[in-house]
Amino acid sequence: MKKLFYLLAFVSATAFAQEDKKGVVTVSANYNWSEPTQYGLSFEFTKGIKFNERLTSWILNASYGQIELNEKNLKTTGEGFVVELGTRTYRTRGIREGLYFENFLTHGEMNFDDKLNGEKFEGKYSYWSIFNPNIGYKIQLTKNLSIDPSLGFNWKWEVRGQGDVDNKNFDNFVFKAGVKLGYTF
Asked: Is the pTM of this model over 0.70?
């Protein structure tokens, strides 16, 4: 986890060090309700504005994740991380606000470590996804502050569960709703 935060710090620092003054970085607090639920940071990296073109940004989401396992008489929560890398394309030409479409390459890993009914329950649930689209709407509240609600779904390709986790009680196709509160530098 420590390596992930160092990587994010490095990526952020290099984004600010670019000579292109039209490059923009938006850092957002990110919440996604889904399976797993995510709380984290989102980084939107953009290049110069081109008039009358649909603008595209690179998005990096790094989140703390929680997933609930509710099976017969067992109920426990796994905790871990979710990392998403993708692109966002705005519908309106020439501006970076309003309706957008995005898709992510995603990896998530949740660890379970609990005591249930006097027995130790341990295991790991992880997945990959290349089809994780969203549709959203970015609203500029002020020059630098924005809010960004979105809806979408995730088609997860699960990695074989480890330990007591067998992946039978998790859905591969899940809907999600999220919101980001961002500041543009």
From this structure: yes
